[in-house]
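User: quick one, fold this
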Amino acid sequence: MFEKSFVPQKPFADFKWKWACLQCTEGLNDPVILLGVLFRMRKLEPLGVKFSSEEFAQELRELSEDTADSVGVDLARRTGDRNLIRNSGQYWKALNLIPAKNHSGKIELTDFGRKVADHEISQSEFAAITVQTFRLPNPTIQSEKECEEWLKHGLILYPLRLLLEITCELERRGEGYITTEELVRIIIPLSGCNAELQDYINFILWYRAGDITIEKWPDCIPAANDIRIAREYLLFLSHYGYVQQRGTGTRMEEHYYMDDTIVDEVRQILIEHPKTDSVFDMLAKMRLEKYISEFERKRMQRVRVARPNQASFRKAVLQACERCVITNVTMPEILEAAHIKPFKYNGEDTVANGFAMRTDIHTLFDTGHLRISPDGEVALSSKARMDYGASIPPRIVIPNFTNKEFLRWRWENYDGM
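Assistant:
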């Protein structure tokens, strides 16, 4: 372990954590954008059209309109020859959703990307696989020369895993958060020195206590967008439910807190360091050990409790329809009100945006394992199909008070929490 007086040195001049392109757009990391674009790629892939095509441009315009009131990323202007994937494709390439090299310009997904787009892999499973496998150096987002520099200095990092390991340990000590400033000023410089977990913890706590200064530490964010690019790691963990973002100051002042309701599940994910390059082998192991299912259940409970007006929303929805929209169960003790367009994305607390659902059906709906189209088609993930296939109808009658535009929004854009 390093002493308090230790001052890290850059292993090479351009050492930094990369994720996005030089002109990053944080909103692209939001699941509704990241996966919404993926769903649209999947729809167009069999047609053999290009990323520069009018067909893809139209899909991006529609997604941009759908998310204007929530995420607010302007995709409509990222079309044609200077299209979204040409300029910001790292967001999808780095996560193994589209191939790193595509010389034809045609829309193409990886096998993993197709499984995610087809809802055969849940959003929580996708995030857990990414946490386990995302590595630096990464040839999909770094040049060959950069990767050689990392390897020459013996550096191989799993940054998402590292951030969760640090936050879990800080949480155990009663200070379970990381700030953007601590990420770029302390964690990234130490990561170039093959630091141990205890080193990260020590220097963060010493810095918070005012026991050290870091004025002489190296600057690993010298370029204009480097802070934003490094922050993508914290945003990913926030979007997929591992940490909760708090703070209304500058980017550097933001705090990312460990969600203490899922600490055990996060630790299980961290234990499962991949011993195989096959994401599908990893997926099978996750499902066998069921910790992602528990992660989904606990996270959903927390989100529901935190929603304002949930009690009045439930009362209104159950007054409008006293039975589960899928199973027809009428016992109020096990009925809940599910938002169709999620509250997080500006979904309203109205009967038109709600379904009465049995508790377990609500869980399937909110986690993306059960989907309902505007015309009443019911689709199950492969995981849910194994347990529920025989008991779930292939089609339902949509209540006449339901706003089908909200159903369309969810069907086309949303893959659960």
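User: anything notable?
Assistant: The chain has a mean pLDDT of 92.
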